[in-house]
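Help needed: design a sequence for this.
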């Protein structure tokens, strides 16, 4: 399931983020000595006093891989890697247990600088080792080993990769551990949780019932689930499968109640229908907006069960998995039921210890499938040459849905559909609490690739880079015989992309793209600038974050939007008109903020939020989420950050201008009303 930290809406916060206090401790240029070369393969130890910085130089080529490890330390030490143009690339903070790995793919030739400084006022000791500094291999097998080296370990979770073409397996191998408690390695045959990659299976199950004549895509959802309320407009089965229903998103909604999904709080399937029943209105008219939605696929699985008169997991086993030959695949209907031989998902705690947090509850239909590399290959090959279901149904699944205004969502039924280089691509990523996956299929090549991991920090988009190595056709542009070269790309071409883009699912979240000389940046609402680097003529990787941006054109080749890709999910953003000036900033006085303080209750979510003043700032507190500062953005609007990600809050006033409530939301569940109760 797609998520942020790891459940909620997308953000561009720096991975391994450096706190403002720590960043301020970096000495000025006049205080710095020349950085010492960091030797390859030999541990370097030292201490970094408060307010000082240890600096090391690493000379690297473009299209290379640099990998460092930061040893465990009693005090937190921050490692930050700077590009040859002195832009931050990535950062990581040491932990009291285990070691931290910092790995980057270099995009330019020159001297990269490693900066080490204390994350608190006490200073600290450090041990850092340059494990690798080498060119990326053109041999796909060696490239896998290079990029997955951080997961090739006996003391941490692992990852697995498989690639195939024309019915032949080109590569299938796993790295690291499947179960740390019992010292069990991750193997190519280990079943693992694929999260939202499961959605295509749910869509396929629906299509089988359509072929059986037992339902249609244009059926009113309430025909099959009459308990759902009439919210004024018809929501169809098609709307569920295309993320255009207008229903609240379950996990994002629950995160606003203080449900700590990142701490294994329980979620039951019995919560889907009541969530929609309490919703006062649709978030959007059906078919008018793409809003990635786990609620919809949970309801779709219920429809499959009700129409087929068999439990969803049984239907999938009997009608899909066994006939296709996926004998090592199952739906985990209840997160408390064991999956024999499966991976355990792990995330790092603040002290560096690996934690087993389990799977998301209630995910069946939206996620919840455990499978193997070989079974996913069988599934992908089946989609290209079906033995179950029809080619017509699968073609519908792979065809992007068109919104009511004529815009394409880039998403069919449980599958994203786009291109990579000149080749068609269908794909879907997945992220449960501590599992990650990606399945990408290239229909015209008869090829595909999948990556899986039981590390919550794994970036599953690595599949696309590996695919280019296994399938050279992906890197070839029409009428061009060489792969994209970032070093020779004319940065002035970026000017046609520069501008502001608002997320369709959350228009208050704006990405601003700018160029300063040869350096390219993006800046999200309420966040600092981050550097981006070109990966093709229209796509850019965000430095220091497992995220990328792809720009879109209309038929006239005009740039009209962008897609933010992060954590296996894709969020579309529409370009704002050049003459659409940003809304005027709002700077309420302390007295104005003080009049907003009070206790607020959401009947829909059955939860309280409290606003209060502290040191002249307006703060928000929720029983499980803790407290944090609110940042005023535009008139009557605030941004905030919870342990599960960012949220927005818009005030509601009466005729006298008094604050009587507010509407809160994140990118997938929004406009949830909180009424002032005191």
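Sure. Designed sequence:
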């Amino acid at each position: 399931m797609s998520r942020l930290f790891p459940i909620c809406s997308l953000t561009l916060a720096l991975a391994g983020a450096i706190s403002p206090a720590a960043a301020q401790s970096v000495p000025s240029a006049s205080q710095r000595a020349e950085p010492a070369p960091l030797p390859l393969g030999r541990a370097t130890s030292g201490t970094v006093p408060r307010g000082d910085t240890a600096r090391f130089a690493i000379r690297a080529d473009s299209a290379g891989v640099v990998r460092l490890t930061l040893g465990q330390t009693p005090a937190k030490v921050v490692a930050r890697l700077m590009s040859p143009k002195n832009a931050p690339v990535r950062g990581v903070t040491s932990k009291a247990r285990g070691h931290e790995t910092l790995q980057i793919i270099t995009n330019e030739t020159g001297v990269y600088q490693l900066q080490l400084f204390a994350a608190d006022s006490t200073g600290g000791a450090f041990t850092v080792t340059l494990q690798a500094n080498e060119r990326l291999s053109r041999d796909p097998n060696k490239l896998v080993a290079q990029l997955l080296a951080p997961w090739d370990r006996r003391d941490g979770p692992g990852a697995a990769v498989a690639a195939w073409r024309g019915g032949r397996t080109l590569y299938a191998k796993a790295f690291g551990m499947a179960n740390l408690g019992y010292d069990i390695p991750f193997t190519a045959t280990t079943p693992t949780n694929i999260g939202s990659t499961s959605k295509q299976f749910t869509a396929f199950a629906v299509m089988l019932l359509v072929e059986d004549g037992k339902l249609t895509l244009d059926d009113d959802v309430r025909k099959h689930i009459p308990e759902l309320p009439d919210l004024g407009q018809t929501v169809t089965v098609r709307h569920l499968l295309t993320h255009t229903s207008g229903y609240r998103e379950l996990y994002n909604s629950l995160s606003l109640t203080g449900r700590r999904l990142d701490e294994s709080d329980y979620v039951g399937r019995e919560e889907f229908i009541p969530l929609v029943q309490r919703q006062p209105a649709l978030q959007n008219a059906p078919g008018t907006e793409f809003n990635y939605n786990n609620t919809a696929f949970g309801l779709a699985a219920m429809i499959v069960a009700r129409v087929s008169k068999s439990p969803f997991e049984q239907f999938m086993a009997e009608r899909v998995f066994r006939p296709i030959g996926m004998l090592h695949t199952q739906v985990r209907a209840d997160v408390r039921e064991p999956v024999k031989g499966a991976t355990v998902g792990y995330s790092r705690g603040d002290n560096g210890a690996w934690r087993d947090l389990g799977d998301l509850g209630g995910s069946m239909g939206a996620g919840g499938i455990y499978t193997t590399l070989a079974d996913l290959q069988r599934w992908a090959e089946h989609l290209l040459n079906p033995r179950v279901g029809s080619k017509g149904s699968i073609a519908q699944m792979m065809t992007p849905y068109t919104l009511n205004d004529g815009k394409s969502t880039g998403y069919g039924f449980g599958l994203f559909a786009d291109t990579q280089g000149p080749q068609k691509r269908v794909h879907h990523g997945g992220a449960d609490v501590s599992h990650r996956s990606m399945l990408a299929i290239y229909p015209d090549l008869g090829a595909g690739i999948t990556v899986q991991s039981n590390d919550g920090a794994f970036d599953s988009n690595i599949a696309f880079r590996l695919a280019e190595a296994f399938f050279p056709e992906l890197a070839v542009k029409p009428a061009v015989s060489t792969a994209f070269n970032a070093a020779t790309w004319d940065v002035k071409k970026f000017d046609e992309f520069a501008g502001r883009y608002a997320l369709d699912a959350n228009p208050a979240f704006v990405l601003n793209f700018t160029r300063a000389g040869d350096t390219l940046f993006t800046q999200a609402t309420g966040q600092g600038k981050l550097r981006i680097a070109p990966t093709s003529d229209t796509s850019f990787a965000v430095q220091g974050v497992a995220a990328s941006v792809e720009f879109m054109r209309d038929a006239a080749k005009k740039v009209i939007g962008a897609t933010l890709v992060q954590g296996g999910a894709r969020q579309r953003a529409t370009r704002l008109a050049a003459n659409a000036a940003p809304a005027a900033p709002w700077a309420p006085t302390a007295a104005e903020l003080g009049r907003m303080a009070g206790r607020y209750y959401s009947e829909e979510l059955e939860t309280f939020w409290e606003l209060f003043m502290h040191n002249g700032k307006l703060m928000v507190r929720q029983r499980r989420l803790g407290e944090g500062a609110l940042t005023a953005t535009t008139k009557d609007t605030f941004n905030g950050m919870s342990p599960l990600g960012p949220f927005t809050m818009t005030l509601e006033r009466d005729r006298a201008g008094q604050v009587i409530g507010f509407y809160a939301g994140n990118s997938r569940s929004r406009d949830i009303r909180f009424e002032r109760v005191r």
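The CA atoms of residues 551 and 562 lie 4 Å apart.
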